[in-house]
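[scheduler] slot 2 assigned
[scheduler] job type: sequence-to-structure, two independent chains
[scheduler] chain ordering preserved from manifest
[runner] begin chain α
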Amino acid sequence: MTCAPGLPSLMALYSSPCSRSSTLSHHTNNHFHKNSTGPTCKTAFCLFNSSSRKPFSIPFNASSSSSYSSPFYISKRRDVSPTTYGRRRSTCLAIRGEAKAGHDNVEEQATGTTPPTHLSWTRASRFIDTMWRFQRPHTSRGTILASLALAGRGWIQSPHLMSWELLPKGLLGLVALICANAYIVGINQIFDVQIDKINKPYLPIASGELSTEMAWILVLCYAATGLLIVFALQSEPLIFSLYCLALLLGTLYSVPPFRLKRYPAATVSMIAAVRGFFVNFGVYHSVRAAFGLTFEWSPAIAFITVFVTIVGLVVAILKDLSDVEGDQKNNITTLATRLGVRNMGLVGTGFMLTNYVGAILLAIYMPRAFRSNLMIPAHIILGSALIFEARKLERANYSKEAVSSFYQYIWNLFYAEYIIFPFI
C-alpha cells in the first residue's frame, strides 16, 4: 500500500475480524512491557516517519485494559511516551469501531438481513405495487381520464352550477368506477391464470406474486366497496342498475360455465358496451344530476360515446392478437385465432381510421357544435400517428412484441381523445 509522503500519522486501515488469541509480548528500551490476553486486533496500520518516509506495519493490541500493553515501534527506534501512546490507542480503538460497523453492514447485505422497519416498508410497497398491477393500470387510467373529461365537459357547459361541495361526491363516484374496473379485470385474471402463464406471465397471479385466495379477497372487496359507494351517493335507480349490470357482464365474461369470452361476438359487444356506452352515458348522467339538470344528448356527448364505443370495439379485437398461443392451447376461440393476426390488425386499424375521418367530417359539417379549429387538426395528427404505427407493425411482420406495442398505442390514442374532448 502506498501512502502520501510527509504524513507522520495513521494513513490506512485494513479491516479484519478480531479474535481471541494467545498472549503477545512486545519489548522496547526501558519502557512499558506487559503480557496481556485479550481480543487481539490483527488490524494493521501504516505509520510513517517524516524523515524516512518508509511505511511499515505495526501490530496493535486492542485490549480493553487501561494498561499499555503494546508500545509502538517507529523508525530509528524512538520510543513512544505513555501520553502519546494513550492518545494513539484511543484513535485506533475509535477507527476499529467504525471498521467493525462497516463490516457489520457488509455482512448484513451479504446475508440479506434488514431492519424490521425497513422490511415492513418494503413489503408494504411491494404489495401496493402488486395491487396496482392487478388492476391493469392501462384500463384504470382510461376510466380515470373518461370520468375527468366528462365531468370537465359538464363544468364547461354549466360553470355557474359548479360548487366545491360537489367535489367529494365526484371523487367518491370516481373511486366507485375504479373499483368496478378492478373487479372486472381482477376476476378475469383469476379464471385466466393458466392462459396468462403463457400469454402474460408478468401478471401478479400468473407470476405467483399474488395468491388466488388474496385475489378473491381483493375482487370481492372491490365489488362491495363500489356498490356501497353508489348506494350511499343515493344515485338514481338507472345509474345503480347500470353499475350492477356492468359488474354482472364482467362476471359472465370470465366465470364458468358462462365464460362468454369464448364467443368473439359476445366479447366484442360487451367490451364496447361497457367501455363506450356505460361509462360515458353513466358518468355524464351523474354529472348532470349533481348539477340538478336532466340528462340530454348533446352533439359532443353523442360524439364521444360513439367514438369510444368504436375504440372499445378495436380494443376487443386487438387485445387477443398477442394472446393467440395461449388461447389456442386452452381452446379459446377469438377473431385472431380464426382469421389471423394480420387480418384482425388491419380491421382494427381500419375502424380507428374511420373514427378519425368521422370526427373531421363532423367538425366540417357541424361547426356550431364543435370547435373546428381544434377538432380538425387534432384528429388529423392522431390519424397520421395511427398510420405511422400501423406501418411499423407491418414492417415488424406482426411479431408478438410489435403487436403488444401497437395495442398499447391504441390505448394512448384512447387517452388522447379524452384529453382533448372537453375543449372541442
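[runner] end chain α
[runner] begin chain β
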Amino acid sequence: MTVPFLQRLNRHLADTAQIAWCERRCEGCGATLDPSFLDDYCRESCRPTEKPVVPAFVTRTPAARIHSFRLTSAARALPGTYFEDVDPLAVIEAAGWRCELCGGEIPKHVDRYDPQAASVDHHLPLALGGHHVRSNMRAAHRRCNISKNATHPDDLICREQPSPPAETDGFRLPAEGGGDTVGSGRGPTDRSDLAQRSPGTTEATDPNR
C-alpha cells in the first residue's frame, strides 16, 4: 500500500466516524443528540432506572420462604421423597453465612441471582434419592450449588481429593521388554552398568569381534 492510499483511507475513516457521531440518537427516546453532547441520553428521564437488588431469602416472610423452597425442591425430587418444612434462611444462619462447599463467606446484601448469593444445597441430591430434610441441607453460594448440581457426595469427595501417586521407594518397575531395572535406578542399557562389569562380560558386546 502506498502512502497516498493510506492518507485517503484515514480521511475516509475519519469522515465516516464524524458522520456516525452526528447521527447519534438517544437510547431512551430516539431523539437526535447534539454532537457536542457526550452522553447517550438526552435527558435524565430517558435514562433507564436501575433494578433494585433483591437479596435471597432476606426480604421474604418465613412462611413464604418455606413454601417457595419446598416447591422448587419438589420439581427435582424422586417419587417417595420425604419433605420437611425447613426455612432456608435458618440453614444459612446456622452455618454463619459461610458456604459449606467452598468455605467462603456468603454476602448478605447481593442480588439473589448473583453467583455469590446465598442458597441451600441438598447434601445427597434429591435427584439421587435424597430427602428434603434439615439434616440433608447445607448453606452454599449459588455458583457452588449450581456447579455441584446432582453430584453424589462420594464422587464429589473423590474429585476434590485426588489420590496421591504411588510411591516406589526409589525402585523402578521392570521394563516391558523383560529388562530387570528394580533397585538399580537405571535402564538395562545404561553404559555405567556396562563399564562396571567384568571384561569377560563385555567381550560378548564388542561389535568388532
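[runner] end chain β
[qc] chain β: The first strand starts at residue 118 and ends at 122.
[scheduler] slot 2 released
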